[in-house]
Structure formats: structure tokens, C-alpha cells
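Sorry to interrupt, but I need a hand with the structure work. Leave the record below and I will have a look:
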Amino acid sequence: MTTIDAGIAPGAFSEAVFRKCGYTGLKVDVAAQRLIKANAVAAVVFLMLGGLMGVAVALTRWPAVHLLPAEWFYLVLTGHGANVLLFWIIFFEIAILYLASAVLLNSRLAAPKFAWLGFVLMIVGALMANYAVLRGDSSVMFTSYPPMMASSWFYLSLILFSVGALIGVAVFFGTLVIARAERTYEGSIPLVTFGALTAAIIAVFTIASGAIILIPTWLWSLGLISNIDPLMYKVIWWGMGHSSQQMNVSAHVSVWYLIAALVVGAKPLSEKVSRTAFLMYILFLQLASAHHLLAEPGMSAEWKIINTSYMMYLAVMGSMIHGLTVPGAIEAAQRRNGFRKGWFEWLQKAPWGNPAFSGMFLSLVMFGFIGGISGVVLGTEQLNVLMHNTIYVPGHFHGTVVAGTTLAFMAVTYLLLPLIFQREVIWPKLAKWQPYLFGIGAGGISLFMMGAGTLGVARRHWDITLTDAAHAFEYAPGAFLMMGLNGIFALIAGVGGALYILITVGTVFFGKKLDTAGAQPMHFPLHAQGPYAASHYGSEGTVKLPGTIVLVTIFFVSFVLYYFVNWKYLSDLWLFR
């Protein structure tokens, strides 16, 4: 049976009950474990709802299918954005915050009752938002720009959800204080916890931005305020809308380090370098939201130039550092594990059959090559005019939030199920294929949306054939091909997502209960040194990484070539000769 220790920790205000994990040796606060379970389960439910809506949107944008009528399309698109960009991801991130603080630091969770209050507020807010959208009077899409007005229920739901998330973040901060005061760990906090701390700090800025604009917008919907200036709304809203994605980046990069540690025993190449990269996220990453405002005439040229030149590259630098240090840490660990032949034996002999590892590595590659490169292109003022408000933009953030964040969170689920839910993963052979199916589908969605956007397909339009338009217009034939392929790959991603839901829910309810005190073997075992590498401060201290250097070189060559191609497109647009 699982070992249970009950007692009052030094300075504790309430009794904390712990169990000892037989796989990692970590003390797990049972209150934290319950909250991790609750938030993870809620996340999966909203992913299922949002994923179904996403498939319906893709099948509507596929001209040969054109599934939904116009009024339903915008309703479903609004629900899709809220459920997957907000509810699925933030519920899961709260679970990660509790894991990175209470579990990795062997600490009790601060104020579990307040944590449950936050969870309830998040649930109420998410359900209210779906009710407001589904009743048909809040089809304002994710950005909800004025003068379009949603029902007051919609704005209030987002406010309640944000307050609940902020409570979860406060509990995370409190847990760090308790762990430090009660000396539940030695030295500095581990890198995974530091990354989660980065996400939490950005979350405070994000939620504050949301409150600043959503509260007056809610009062506007009630008729208590006569007007909301659209430009003011956009500027402040993107302080929330884009920064929430930077919170996601910090969280999923932390997950990359966690999975690399637990599965192959990877330690950071340099704690200082990786922590500096996370610090750059706090200082600069919010500035990337400028690319949503570059077409706004009310923003000064000086502001646009500063944000899309010097500041933009500071924002990108942090992710580029992680793009070197994460695969570098894996290579160093694999070479330490005995895979030293040539440049790539470490990669060839990596545990590709472990869905945690394969999902993490696919997330890493696609986030960099698809989301990262396209993000820099969109963030360049001159190039932005090519793609602004085309379907290239959702193609870009499907590369960051879906192929990057969502796939990383799916991957770490295969570790949470045995370690936190204490259940053996059911259907392990299907589980091995799930990250590949979802990853290929998500990557295809991003690439073909971006391709269609390059050909001018509008971002928010219901019907790319423009059948009912007052003035006839027809996109290039390639645009129709791209949107058809987008629909096909959306179905592939849908199958991968459905497998994830089935495996996760099936494991929670029907998976074999694990006797972790006896440390029974798991389908996807941990590395012997993995738990220590994840929960302790320490660097690998090597720079002999020939394989990683080759991979990074390929990335930079791809970056330069794609950047050049877009400048060539721009010269055609501006008729330079």
C-alpha cells in the first residue's frame, strides 16, 4: 500500500497528510494530489469540448464540406477559442503549478481550502462562458473586439475564471514560501519549479490586464458605461490575450525539462543559462503582443518600430536558448547513458516508444520550426502586412499553442497518470501512437493554414468561396487545396485528441491501481536518476553536443531561408523591381 504520513509540519496551520511515491521517492501532499487531479480532469473535459468545436470549424472552412451555417460557425469558433486557449490550458497549468511546488519540493500545499475556492470559481466561469456562447448571443470570437457586444454573462464568466486562476497562482506562491521556510528542499529550487514560477509571474500580469479591460467591458454590456474605445480595448486586451500564451510557453518549456529529466535522466546543461532564458520571458515576452497591433493606425510608428526590432528579438532569444539547452540536455544524458556512437545514436536510441518522451520531442521541434519561425515573421513590421488578419495568424498560434503547448501537456499526462493518479496507463500500444497522430495532425493544421494565409485567405471569414459576396472574388486554386488539406489534418488531429481523451479517462476509471510502495514496473518507466534530476538544482556541465549543434544549425538555416522567402513575397507585393 502507499505510505501515508500524517503530521503537522513546523509552522503549519493545519494538518498535512503525505504519501511517499514509490517511483520518485518524493513526499506527495495528499491535498495537493487531489487538487492536481481535479484541475487535470477539468482540463481534459474542456479539451474534449473545445476539440470537437475545432473539428467543426475546420470542416466548415473546408470548401468541399462546409459543415456549419454562418451563425453556427461564429458561435462554435467563439466556444473553440475559449475552451482550448483558456480553459483546457489554464486548468492544466494550475495542476502543473501545484506539481512543481508541493510535489517537487516535498512540501505541503499552502491553503488548500483557498485552492478549492479558486477551482470552483474557474469551473463556474468556464461553464458560464459555454452557456453564454451556446445560447447564441455571445458569438464575438476569442478576441471579442468592440463594438461587437457579448452578453454580460460572457464577460462575467471570464472575470470569475480569471479570479479563480489568480487564487491558484497565489496558492503556488504561498507554497514556495512554505517550502523555503520549512526547508523541504536543499539549495535553490529546481529548474522545473523555476520555470513554473516564471509562468506564475506572467500570469499575474496577464490576469491584471484582463481585469483592467474586461471589468469595464462587462459594465458596458450592462449599460452602465456608454462606450468602449476599440483601440484602447485592443491594446489592453492583447496584454492579456498574447501574454496568456507566454504563460503557456513558460509552462510547457518547464514540462520539457521535467519529462527529459524523468525519462532519460537529463539535467540542465547550465542552470544559470536556462534560468536566464526564463527571466527573459518575464522581461520581454509580453512585447511580442505588438504584432497584433501593427495594422492599427492609432499606434505610433516609433512604438511599432521599437517593438518589432530590438524588443522583438529580445523576446525571441529566450526560446532560442531553450531550443538549444533542452535537446542538449537530452543528448548529454543519453551519452551518459551509454549512447555515444556518432552524432545521433543518442537520438536514434531515445525512448521513442514512451509517449511522454515522443510527445515532448515533437512539441519541441514543431514549436520551434513552425510556431517560433512564423512568430518572428509576424512580429516583423514590414512582413506583417503580408499576413495580418489572414488565416496565417491562427496557423501560427496553432503551431505554438497546439503543436507546442497542448502536445507537451498531453505528453506529461502519461507521467501524471501513474505518479499522481496512481493508475497504470491502459492500452499502452495505442498510447505510444497517440502523440504521433496528434502531432502530425496539429503540424499539418498549422502549415496549411499558414500556406492559405500567404495566399490571402481571410482569418475570420465563414466561406472562402465568398458565394454571397456583393462583388465576386476567387482565391488562387492553391488556397482551396490548402484549406482542404487543413481539414484532412484536422481530422487526423481529432483522432489523436480522441485517443488521448479515451486513454486518459479510461486510465483514471479503469486503469490498474499501482502499489507505488512496492514500485511495480510501469509501462513507461522512469530513468533511475530521473526523479533526482527533476527535483534538485544541478547542471550537466558539458558542451560536447555534436548532434544538438547539427540540429540547431538546421533550424537556423531553415529560419534564414523562410525569412528570405517572405521578404521576396513582400517585394512582389510592393512591386519593387
Q: What stands out?
A: Residues 34 and 420 are 9 Å apart (CA to CA). Confidence is low (pLDDT under 50) at residues 6-13.
